[in-house]
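The protein record reproduced below.
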Amino acid sequence: MTSVKQFQVTFDCANPQRVARFWCEVLGYVVPPAMEELAAERGSAFACVDPAGVGPRLYFQRVPEGKVVKNRVHLDVRVGVGLVGEERLAALEAECARLVALGAVRERLLPATDEDESCLVMLDVEGNEFCLD
């Protein structure tokens, strides 16, 4: 039996380079030099990686159709880990403001419940949902 050691997350999108550069800013990822060269040639795909080599590679591929329905899978950007109440909300709001300046859109706040802390639902530069958690 084999075990998976690495994985990448793939995004279908209209503008791979734009979406990849947005996620680089969100996550502190970088674009590998070889990807810059490849993008200049083709432009149909782009990727970014965690410079520490810990997080998954993100791959962005151009598709002809636009986004129509809610994502079946989304990323949770973990900015409030270990925080609760007002302290957590302040951390989420601060990160939300940073990401809105990068082109994200704030959708809605999901308030805390008995089981879960609050989180913010956001949209990336092409309307893909993600959460600030």
Observations:
- The two ends are 34 Å apart (CA to CA).
- The first strand starts at residue 8 and ends at 13.
- The chain has three helices and seven strands.
- The mean pLDDT is 91.
